[in-house]
Amino acid sequence: MSFTAQPLAADKAEAYRDLAQQLTALIGDERDAIANAANTAALLFDLLPDLNWAGFYFLKDGELVLGPFQGKPACIRIAIGKGVCGAAAATRTSQVVADVHAFPGHIACDAASASELVVPLLHGDTLLGVLDLDSPVAGRFDDADRAGIEAVAAIWVKASA
Ligand code: SME
């Protein structure tokens, strides 16, 4: 396989269309969930500006367990309902947190994190885990990021679940 990531467009919606195309090409017909998660985390971390962490938590035996990621070492297990990741898992809805320090129960893995976006990984009605992005910039994530990362999550689920 030969793959070289290309810089994203300046316009955010266009950038996420670029990112989705590149991720689809990168995954190809691979179906291994860990391999695809590892490459997804690497591509997000490489291409999206102002991130200090990007990665997966998988639902295992009723809790979230750390999966492939880029960034500093992170908390290994997160209970459903705890922190931003646990909230996304409990509600099965994306969480856009402009200021993590104002989020009740936020779990600080990297002190540099100021804002966070977590989207659930849903395969039909089944929750597989969450995809988590952290930024050192407050208010880094908006609704276009949410939609774009939900599309990324859907590509990973379709290929891997
Ligand atoms: N901050 C997250 C924990 C995971 S780390 O950011 C990688 C949370 O509150 O769920």
Topology at a glance:
Layout: H1 12-27, H2 33-47, E1 53-60, E2 63-71, E3 77-79, H3 83-91, E4 95-97, E5 115-123, E6 126-135, H4 143-160
Antiparallel strand pairs: 1-2, 1-6, 2-3, 4-5, 5-6
Methionine sulfoxide is lined by residues 53, 74-75, 78, 83-86, 106-107, 109, 113, 116, 132, 134.
Report on the structure:
With 161 residues, the chain is of the alpha+beta class. It contains 4 helices and 6 strands. The protein has a single domain, classed as 2-Layer Sandwich (Beta-Lactamase), CATH 3.30.450. The protein has helices spanning 12-27, 33-47, 83-91, 143-160, and strands at residues 53-60, 63-71, 77-79, 95-97, 115-123, 126-135. The protein has a 6-stranded antiparallel sheet, with helices on both faces. β1 and β2 form a beta hairpin. It is globular. Methionine sulfoxide binds at residues 53, 74-75, 78, 83-86, 106-107, 109, 113, 116, 132, 134.
Distance N terminus to C terminus? 22 Å
Kindly state the number of beta strands: 6
Approximate helicity band: 25-40%
Looking at CATH, which topology would you report?
Answer: Beta-Lactamase
What is the global morphology?
globular
**Class from secondary-structure proportions:** alpha+beta
